[in-house]
Amino acid sequence: MREKSAKFNIQFEFYGGYEPFEKLGKEIIEHGVSKGDSHELIITKCLEEYEVWMFYRENEIS
Fold first, then answer.
1. Which value, in Å, is the radius of gyration of the alpha carbons in the chain?
2. What's the angle, vertex CA 31, arms to CA 26 and CA 36, rounded to 5?
3. Which of 4, 32, 33, 46 could bond to 37 as cystine, CB 3.0-4.6 Å?
């Protein structure tokens, strides 16, 4: 039996105001480490600074 595959396109756009991600990301990481946040939580907080769009067959998925 042949497996069907699906192709998705995911687009990320940084939305951090006027600060570059390098500066904002560093602040998020340093703050999280000083508070004892888990690595997963720190990564999640960094990713929250991005807008994400997913497309399937050229149609945006909401």
1. 16
2. 125
3. 32
Q: Residue 1: inside a domain, yes or no?
A: no
User: DSSP string covering 1-62, please?
Assistant: -PPP---EEEEEEE--TTS-HHHHHHHHHHHHHHHT--HHHHHHHHHTTEEEEEEETTEEE-
pLDDT in tens, 26-57: 999 999 999 999 999 998 998 888 888 888 87
23 is in which domain, residue-wise?
Answer: 8-61
With respect to residue 53, please indicate whether it lies within any of the assigned structural domains.
yes
Residue 21 lies in a domain: yes
Alpha-carbon span 24 to 38, nearest angstrom: 18
Number of domains in the chain: 1
